[in-house]
Amino acid sequence: MAVWKRALNLKHIILLAAVILVPFLVASPRSMTARMVADSENGTKVMVLNYHKIDDLDISLSVLPRDFDDQMRYLKENGYHTITPEEFYESLSGNYELPENPVLITFDDGYEDNYRNAYPILRKYDFKATIFVISSFLGEKEHYFTWDQAREMAEHGISIQSHTVDHKAMTDLTDDQLRAELVESKKKIEDEMGRPVDFIAYPTGTYNLHIAQLVKDAGYKAAFTIKYGNVDKASNIYALERVPIFHTEDTNKSFLERIRYTPIFESFGWVKS
Ligand SMILES: [Zn+2]
Question: What is the pLDDT of residue 94?
Answer without folding.
Answer: 85
